[in-house]
Amino acid sequence: MSNLFKPLQINRMTIKNRFIRSATVDNLGENMVVTDAQLNFYKELSRGETGLIVSSGLFPSLDGWAAPGQLGIHSDEMIPSLTKIADTVHANGGKIVAQLMHAGWFGNPDLCGLQTVGPSETINPANNLKVRELASDEVEEKIDEFVRAGARAAEAGFDGVQIHAAHGWLVSAFLSPVTNRRNDYWGGSALKRANFVIKITEGLRKVTGADYPVLIKLGIKEYHPDGKSADEGIDSANMFIAAGMDAIEVSEGVEEIPFNHIRPDKISPYYVDECRKAKEAIARPIILVGGMRHLSEMKNIVDGNIADAISMCRPFIMDQHIVRKFREGSSGKSLCTSCNSCIRTMLDRNLHCTFNSGLINF
After folding, report:
1. Interhelix angle 79-91/136-156, nearest 10 degrees
2. Tens of pLDDT along 71-127?
3. What residues does 214 pair with on adjacent strands?
4. Which residues of the chain have pLDDT under 50?
5. How far apart (Å, rounded) are the C-alpha atoms in residues 188 and 178?
6. What are phi and psi of 346, to 5 degrees?
7. How far is CA 56 from CA 30, 131, 218, 237, 274, in A?
């Protein structure tokens, strides 16, 4: 039997197989809290035998709010809403970690009434928004906000947390020479650019304990002419592990082409080279996302020791039970063509695969 269908240990958490639902902002919430549509989606992901679900991105502070239907984890008032998610997943046999995601330069001033912020002043080329540089004491406040968000996730019953440090969002921006041009404790060298994540990780360890799973979605390499190399990304990952990180989901960092991480029409894995290097150098579970469609390729990645697990997002929008079908042998691939039409439906607050009539499909 392929290792894909065998359990994986991440700190104290055991997941039943190596299939992970990678996060996206589903934009289906209302007033920052969960809706029945979201709960039903999480229910079916769990019933469909997904080994681990990463929640939609949860903003740890109001200036990190990106989309009107995004859920918050920025105050204790959010805990009852978040508890519904964790309880729904657990009642249907699943495991779930809360993704802590600050929008950074993708923040939405029309929603929160606050200017977008980042490690350095800049203009976001994707939306032409001016980004205000955080003062050093504000950086420390942001760290505290992530830590408090992690404590809320634990209180709400999530099995762990994942820090979103990819794709140009705030944490990713601190790690990138493209967007972090500081010359202080928080920037000026690869080591200093890593301090933001190190301090968040150390803080999460203090409030959640030594055995609570802390994961990171990390832009190992940047597909940008001025971006970081895979070697720098791997070095940073090992610093995070020394601070208490438990697992790494390999993706990309700040992008020259916005949203390059959801590459249209790509139906084969596209971060294999950097993932292989990361797996050789990092002594923690490695998860590979991006272009997972064919079961045979997923088996090659896990059984070939390129990664310990694979993660998918768009295939789960199309079919929440794809893992069950893989296990039963009734399917050998996802029918997702990476057309990205689901992204447009998400922006319209009606997330679904356009090949299907609604969000719940299996």
Report:
1. 50
2. 999 999 999 999 999 999 999 999 999 999 999 999 999 999 999 999 999 999 989
3. 161
4. none
5. 11
6. -65, -45
7. 14, 24, 16, 23, 25
